[in-house]
Amino acid sequence: MKIAVPTETDKTEPRVAATPETVKKFIALGAEVTVQAGAGAGSRITDADYEGAGATIAKTAPPMLKAADIVLKVRRPSATEVKNLVSGAILVGALDPFGNDEDVKALAESGIDAFTMEFMPRITRAQSMDVLSSQANLAGYQSIIDAASNFGRAFPMMMTAAGTVPAARVFVMGAGVAGLQAIATARRLGAVVTATDVRPAAKEQVESLGAKFIAVEDDEFRQAETSGGYAKEMSKEYQAKQADLIAAHIAKQDVVVTTALIPGRPAPKLVSKAMVAAMKPGSVLVDLAVERGGNVEGAKPGEVVDVDGVKIVGYLNVAGRIAASASALYARNLYAFVETMIDKEKKALAIDWDDELIKATNLTRDGKVVHPAFAEKGG
Ligand code: NAD
């Protein structure tokens, strides 16, 4: 059982799919692990660290990819990487398949059995494999660190001999995994925190973290959650009522962090140009949804935009900005999943194709696109 961990080919991706900790665990399961030289550099892991854990270091990717039974990745492989993979190889990563049908087809045509971690069901057994949660949690933390470093003022109230500095007012829009961590982090830094969400269940979670919940709590709000626990797209009427409430609130905030997403839809626009214009100069907005279209009007992917003294922060790959921690958790998520594919006694691959985690995440198999969300589109 040969496992390959290549350096991510996307230059903007500092994370890595295995750490010395998970390399050791894979070796204990009977695997041979090869890591490409420099693969861990963006996450503060040296080649020597990997060697110390028992991995072999490969100077270049092609030979190790050609020899691999399992390839661990953060992002979808490049066309060159796919060419180097052999038919029957297993690929595991956050492959971001939506909107990338051609790449999914290419994986199938190369005979690769590809598994995408974002499709992991959110059930108890798979919690340790949930890359969306592990990365969103860190992104939520980092959003507040980024807000604080762009703010130019202190977050906590400070009573000093020279007088008092007021606490920053932080408003978090979208209280899912990232938003709840943003609330907790802002509270730890001493800010006065408020938050909003369209899911009624979020109210209690927000309040349990010591923040105040702000929302129009009408009948539509009370029913606004899918059976899967995700947000529904709200009616135009609700959005208008909510926007009025939020507009008045935002004008009084120093920092706004937006994290609102609806699965399979563009991010809802929650902060208009007029709302940004109503904020005090020196205020900061951090838009964590910028990769999916953005919650803030005027946010630009990968940029910090200054609108009359109000900064709109649109950093990409925010979990990657805290890469060492992000890789540590991502690698554990991958290990927890790949472990289920291995027969521990025989120390060999033994995939149970009927397992619900395998079925939910398997994109391509035996030359075909097999995932129901893509299968009809080709393969
Ligand atoms: P997400 O990233 O899809 O969305 C982020 C948040 O944005 C959500 O809370 C959503 O309700 C909110 N949102 C959407 N539209 C909005 C709007 N117009 N205004 C304000 N907020 C809006 O969601 P997520 O963070 O991945 O998690 C969603 C839910 O799933 C949460 O309840 C979370 O606790 C739960 N969850 C469960 C598990 C598990 O059981 N294993 C794991 C992770 C998350």
UniProtKB/TrEMBL annotation:
Keyword Transit peptide carried by entry: no
GO molecular function list: NADP binding; oxidoreductase activity; proton-translocating NAD(P)+ transhydrogenase activity
Enzyme type, top EC level: translocase
Catalyzed reactions per annotation: NAD(+) + NADPH + H(+)(in) = NADH + NADP(+) + H(+)(out)
EC number assigned by the record: 7.1.1.1
Pfam family, one: AlaDh_PNT_C
Domain Alanine dehydrogenase/pyridine nucleotide transhydrogenase NAD(H)-binding: 148-314
Similarity-based family: Belongs to the AlaDH/PNT family.
The UniProt record lists the keyword Zinc: no
A biological process from GO: NADPH regeneration
Known role: The transhydrogenation between NADH and NADP is coupled to respiration and ATP hydrolysis and functions as a proton pump across the membrane.
Protein name (database record): NAD(P) transhydrogenase subunit alpha part 1
Keywords: NAD, NADP, Nucleotide-binding, Translocase
Domain Alanine dehydrogenase/pyridine nucleotide transhydrogenase N-terminal: residue ranges: 4-139
Family matches, as NCBIfam families: PRK09424.1 (NF006942)
GO cellular component: a single term: plasma membrane
Listed PROSITE patterns: ALADH_PNT_2 (PS00837)
